[in-house]
Amino acid sequence: MWKSKFLLFSLCLGAVSCTGKPSEQTVTVSEASASPTSTSQAGTSQVEAGSAVSTSVPTTSAPVTSAPTTSAPATASGMAGHDHGAGGPDLTGLQGEAFDRAFLSMMVAHHQGAVEMSRPALNSEDLQVRGWAEAIVMAQEREIEQMTALLEPLGGLDEAAAAPMRAEMQNMAGHTGHAANPDRAFVEAMLPHHQSAVDMAQLAEGRSQNADVLALAQDIVATQQREMAEFRDYLAQ
Fold first, then answer.
1. Lowest pLDDT segment from 34-38, 142-146, 202-206, 217-221
2. Of 19-23, 70-74, 124-128, 143-147, which range is least confident?
3. The pLDDT of residue 23
4. Where are the alpha helices (DSSP H) in the chain?
5. What superkingdom does the record give (predicted)?
6. Where exactly are the structural domains of the chain?
7. Overall fold of domain 91-236
8. What pLDDT does 170 receive?
9. Radius of gyration of the chain from Cα atoms?
């Protein structure tokens, strides 16, 4: 009887032990099988979270605009024509002593230009050209002295009137200095030079009340018109 109870007790202990062990294994396996699922879900959540964070930001480039280029209007500068003292004051609007001073100041610069243009021709082998050069230098240097004296009571040389004429004369002289035929270039240049002197001198009539200025102007017109006729004959050959 006692042995039977002991045997039954041992069997019960074995049953409990066996039952408990499989239960523990089941739980362990269940937990192990659940672990990958949880890991997979966590990984999926991380990927989804990463996808949500990783958003593409569109890049926009500012439009490139080119500033319009504007060119300043071109201005042509040239030497004024030989009319009534080009580049100086308008002699046609002057009367009396105002005319005399402006006229004489411009003519001094004009004559100085003629002298400078004529000096190289003093060495010309052409006797006619050399004769013109000598006559121009002699006559116009004498007239420069005369005009300088006439300017003294009028306030002296008006530099504002003389300077533009002086610049024009220097420009004319520069064009004849390197000519292939210096003699012909000299004569060709003296034609318009003389014409501008005649144009200015002819304005004295009716504007100047000074007898000496009027006499000088008349002499300039007569002398230079005669020389211009000779120049044309020479160039026509």
1. 34-38
2. 70-74
3. 43
4. 2-53, 96-118, 127-151, 159-176, 182-202, 211-236
5. Bacteria
6. 91-236
7. Ferritin (1.20.1260)
8. 84
9. 57
